[in-house]
Each structure stands twice: as C-alpha cells, then as structure tokens.
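User: Show me a protein chain along with its predicted structure.
Assistant: Here is one chain, sequence first, then structure tokens.
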Amino acid sequence: MLKFSIIIPVRKINEYVKESITRIKKLDYQEFEVFIVTDEKEEYDFGGTRIKLLESGNVGPGEKRNLAVKQATGDILAFLDDDSYPDYGWLTNAAKIFEDQEVYALGGPAVTPRGAEYPERMTGYLFESFIVSGLTTYRYLPKKKRMIDDYPSVNLFVRKSAFDEVGGFPIEFWPGEDTKLCLDLVEKHGRDFPYDPDVLVYHHRRDIFKPYLKQISRYGRHRGQFARIFPKTSRIPMYFAPSIFFLWLSIGFLVSLISYAFFVNYFLSLIIYFLSLFFASFYASEKEPEIKGVRFDFISGVFLTHIYYGVNFLIGIMKKPELKLKKYDKKTGNYVEG
C-alpha cells in the first residue's frame, strides 16, 4: 500500500492550516503522514503522531518543502498550500493513478471552497473564466483528464524518488518554484505527467480586489521572468496576451490622438473587448442568481487582471523579481496581504 507524505509550508499556524488538518484526518485513505513547516518553532496539538511540526526559519515555500522531504518516509509526496484542503477521496484517487510505476507526478484541480464568502467566490469566478485563465481553467475547475508539463503546488503529487533525482524545489524562486520543479521533472523523464479531475482539493481565494490583485502581480512578475529564462513552459502566447493588451491600450491611445483612422480602429477594438467582458460576466451572473443585474465587479476584475498581470509580466521580463514573503499577523498567523 502506497504511503503519502503530505507537506504544507506556512509562516505560522493559522485558521486555514487548522481547517486543512481537520479535513486531512477525515480522508478515506489513511496511509499518510503530514509535515507542517513554519518559520519558528511552534507548539500546537493537532492530535495524533502522524502530524509533525518543523521549523525552517524565514525562508521561502520551496525551501520549507525541501526540508520536510528530507524527513518524509512516504512513497509519494503530496504538496498542499496552507490555504487549501483536500476532498474526501483525494489520496484514494491519487493512489490508483500511482499504481502505474511510470507515473512520476500528478496534478489535480483546486476549486473554490463551498460556502466561501462573496468576495472570495468572485475571485474564483475570475480564475474559472477562460478570459482570465485561458487554457489553464482546468487548474480551477474539474476538467477532462490530460497530460501537463507545469502545475502549481496547491495540489501537486510527486513520487519521492523522482523528486530526489532532480534535487527538489529551487529555493531562489517564489512564486514559480513549482514551475521550475515541473520543468526539471519533465526534462528528466522526457514526458509530461497526468492531470486528473478526481484528485480534488479546495483552495481559498484572495478577496477581490486588493489582495487578489497583489497575488496577480506576483504571478505576472514570476511568469515574465520565466518567459525570459525558461522559455519551454513560459514563452507561449497565452502569457504574453495581457502585456500586448496593455501596450495596445496605452500606446494606442497616444497614436489615436494624432490619427483619426487609427482612432476609429482603436475605439472599435475597445468596444469588442468590453463587449467580450460583458458576455463573459454572464458566467458569474449564473453562479449568483440571487444578485440581479450585470456583474460589474467581474468585468472590473477581468480588466484589472489583464492590466496588473500585463504590466508585471513586462517588469519580470526586464528584471528579476525580489523574493518577498507574504506578511502575516504574528498573533493569528493569518496573512495580511494577497
């Protein structure tokens, strides 16, 4: 029977981690151990000897995970973010897939939790929309099975032997340490790895707007840097689209001031763009039928996502982003920013 080592990096024990452990203890597959890696040594009784607390110092998530892997005794490493928790059959479904010895890694969807508050649900709708996430909506909603070459660590499994072969997570990146790990794994094995919709976790979203946009800014900078240094998984049109839109929006406005013909085309392009946002907002409206009217918060969220991501993608291309850990409340452990 396969044994799983579940690894959760966090700066300080908080309510999300407590929720995650409560859910983990109810899994229908019980051959596992859990490592929670915090900045400083903490004493908290989660109940049971399978849940271990480690201290790492003030380091990034990649280095925290590597520390836990050194003590892990499982066959399969199961990585969760501190603000995510698994579905009841999470490990059972993963174990079936890893019965195939050729499978070295596995990804599954991270959906918005049931019962989330409205600001969190709205952010979830943004991620679930094609107009924001493009071809990666399967990361946020259960979609058909497929092979992938890049996946976030919010719901990522890696066979421990494969993890050790590539030397683990890089410690100089955050976010993006998971993208580099996946790139190393794919290059080592010469093939992609599976995504399965039944390997499901729930992932809390940042509230719209400010915390969410801070998160999007980090994503943009990381992907811009990776488009420059790791073209295989990051130098693809989907990631460049928001930056192209931003440049069209800003430079196009200046050109339209001196050319009437250009102004007409520019104005028409903006009409088409905002009409597409309007129709895309029907998705959020269908999800929130008790709230009448056009979802202007969704429309604003998409527009700001494109701007924030596009600008920060360009910044990431031009210079290496600084590794800045998220700030948190030292009393509660809860994060105070996106």
